[in-house]
Amino acid sequence: MIKKITMALSMLLAYSQMNAQGITYGFQTSANIAVQSPIGDIYNNDDFKAGFNVGVFGNYNFNKAFGLQTELNYMQNGSQTEIVKNSYNYISVPVLVSYNLLQKANENWRINLYVGPYVSFLLNAERKYSDNETSNMDLVDNTNITELGVVYGFSVKHPIQNHYVVLNLRFGLGLTPYDVENSDPKNKHIGIGIGYEF
After folding, report:
1. 186 with 37: CB under 8 angstroms?
2. What pLDDT is attached to residue 7?
3. Model's pTM, two decimal places?
4. Which domain holds residue 50?
5. Phi, psi of 166, rounded to the nearest 5 degrees
6. Cα-flanking dihedrals φ and ψ of residue 12, to 5°?
7. In sequence order, what are the residues at sequence separation of 6 or more whose Cβ sits closer than 8 angstroms to the Cβ of residue 89?
């Protein structure tokens, strides 16, 4: 696991050492609502779990329209009912292609649509019971160590001198199962966040 995290950090650093023209970087955090269910099960979910995401990003702008953003995030996923809370925490590395909707308007503001794949590495997984009598359960042995998925959403960037405050709305969908024995449910989340881009 340490080797995988180190490799992800090395990739992010190597990315930041590319041609400095067009490179920006920053940090971000968001509040997440997560659920675990089959991919096609969108509306019939009643086991949402609140969590958060925090991380850093590097952004390379090819031109005024297109960019490539790589992130390194701590991500909380899982599900929750009145009785049980399942918590799955990951290090997540998305690679996102972005498109600026305002590039023809010569605006300082930016509205970006983005989409791209991610790979996540499991840090821990635990089941807690609300009755305070049943022992908590470690779920690591029942959980796949890596997860592949896709992230999509949009961001609004408001300029402050030469920097930007970034508002994000994103959706994450796991394409590979988190559970070793059950391939149907996948991790999903929606996040509303804020960041700062240098």
Report:
1. yes
2. 61
3. 0.84
4. 2-197
5. -115, 125
6. -65, -40
7. 74, 75, 76, 77, 122, 123, 124, 125
Number of independent structural domains in the chain: 1
For the chain, 198 residues long, the average pLDDT of each consecutive 10-residue run is: 57 52 88 91 77 95 90 96 94 96 74 96 95 87 96 94 93 96 94 96
Is the distance from CB of 183 to CB of 144 less than 8 angstroms? no
Beta bridge partners of 85: 80, 128
> What is the total residue count of the chain?
198
Residue with token string 């791209």: 116
CA distance readout (Å), 198 to 27, 39, 124: 9, 36, 32
Residue 99: CB atoms within 10 Å: 14
Q: Which residue has the tokens 């701590």?
A: 74
Sign of the CA dihedral 51, 57, 63, 66? negative
Structure token pair of residue 116:
């791209």
- Indicate which CATH number applies to the domain containing 116: 2.40.160.20
pLDDT at 155 (0 to 100): 96
